Amino acid sequence: MSKSFFLIWICCFGFVTADVIAGNQKSHVHGLVTLTLVLEKKTLAIKIESPAESLLGFEHKARQSSEKQAVKRAEKLLNSPELLFSIEGVNCKPKKSKVELSHFIDSEVHHHHGAHHEIRENHLKGHNEVSHSEISHSEISASYFFNCDSEENLEVVSVRLFKFFPRIEKVNAMWVTDLGQGAALLSSRKNTIPLK
Ligand SMILES: [Zn+2]
Question: Could you say which residues form the signal peptide (predicted)?
Fold first, then answer.
């Protein structure tokens, strides 16, 4: 049961990331983050999916320097699993993180190409089409893998996202371990996933 869940989770992750980069829209609720936790053997995998608004304060490409700074801050924090999660019961070390934020900052070359494209789009389709894409929703996902000493003694994982990203109001957490599965809606007051 848990194994098939794990495989589905791994298989679909690339698809979801590609979806975000392609700029496809998914409906989401600002302030609500989804978290999936899987403990398989001694590997703990955590994946979060968040509206970009809840991590950055906006969902378009960063243009102003303050927006670019917000992307850099989020990138740094999201690449710090030891700050975002507190694991009790077993000793787990971060092994790998995967955070994709590059689509919020245009490279210079890309920007020039985009500008031409945008002007053409304006001529072809009118301004409405372009401004619509400017306000479209976008999401950020991050995956973390930890190596743990044991697969049996994991007790609690505390989620500290609320502390670093105050726009996050709730985290919808779902988990699967060899001992069972469960779900909980976390908040800054109740930020622990009880695994035992
Ligand atoms: Zn949104």
Answer: 1-18
